[in-house]
Amino acid sequence: MKIETKIKRKIKFSKNIFIMAHKNLDLDALGACIGVSAISNHFHKKNYIIIDDEKHELGVEKVLKEIGNNYHIIKSSHIPDYYSKRSILIIVDTNKAQLLQSDKILHYFKNIIILDHHQETDQTISNTDRIIDEEASSACEIVTNLIEHYHVKLDKTPATFILAGIVLDTNNFIVKTTTKTYQAAYYLAEQGAIPRKVQYFLKQDIKDYIIRQKVITEAKVINNKYAVSVASDKIKYKREELAKIADTLLQFNNIEASFVLGNRTDGGIGLSARSEGNINVGEIAENFGGGGDNHDAAAQIKNMTLLEAFEELKKLLK
Length: 318
What we know:
Layout: H1 3-13, E1 16-20, H2 27-42, E2 46-50, H3 58-67, E3 73-74, H4 79-82, E4 88-92, E5 112-116, E6 129-132, H5 139-149, H6 156-169, H7 179-190, H8 195-202, H9 206-217, E7 220-222, E8 226-230, E9 236-237, H10 239-249, E10 257-264, E11 269-275, H11 281-286, E12 291-292, E13 296-301, H12 306-317
Parallel strand pairs: 1-2, 1-4, 2-3, 4-5, 5-6, 8-10, 9-10
Antiparallel strand pairs: 7-8, 10-11, 11-13, 12-13
Helix pairs in contact: 2-5, 2-6, 5-6, 5-7, 6-7, 6-8, 9-10
């Protein structure tokens, strides 16, 4: 039985559906949640998007503001209010329990489905039905394929949210972009997705941009192919800011992978890594308690100073 058919049967048999992504939502994670909600609605299933994050990056904040009351967004602590023995959980944009909005709720569910584009490891949640496609650009691309496969009718607003996730994870179709990525974007455009609105969600704050440029000027090149930048320990950075710095560093000549370290606003030290695909930055991030794949990875490092994290990173790269 094809996995798409198996997932469809489980959705149709379910009483209701809970949808959850990783902590520190980005536009790909949120867009994928919205796409799964559209699939659930298509099969006339009540669905709930679980968001425990208290703070959000700018793009996610904009989308959540536009969503308003059009989606059932709940905290993980509210699951017992809606739970049934025939409830299922659909996880998007991660396959590891420790990265979820809440890993404490997994015991509720006998049926768990994972839709992800990150590498499977020994930490991948077991006993699940899953589509894990490391060649896909994003979770939103995988969810778009399911939407098309199930003939789900999308309105222009959710189509735009989902397209924003693809544009984010491909850095405007620069990295990890295949023919299937363009096909998914074309399909969403056919459903009414508005590219101008996507760019609005991705717009940057000019003050943050200036701060990022200062971090980029401090970059060091290791082994003639790794760009590594350590941000000032006097400043705290949003997770997405570190990711944007890593995206920029990867664009320079002869750089095959980029790494950025900096204190995060939500605690700990953030590691953001990018690669053209030849370096598995996900495996490097796993050494710091994070994860990812051959193209992008991240970690939130506890119990280390910036200097200690930098020295450990240098050892791994050499």
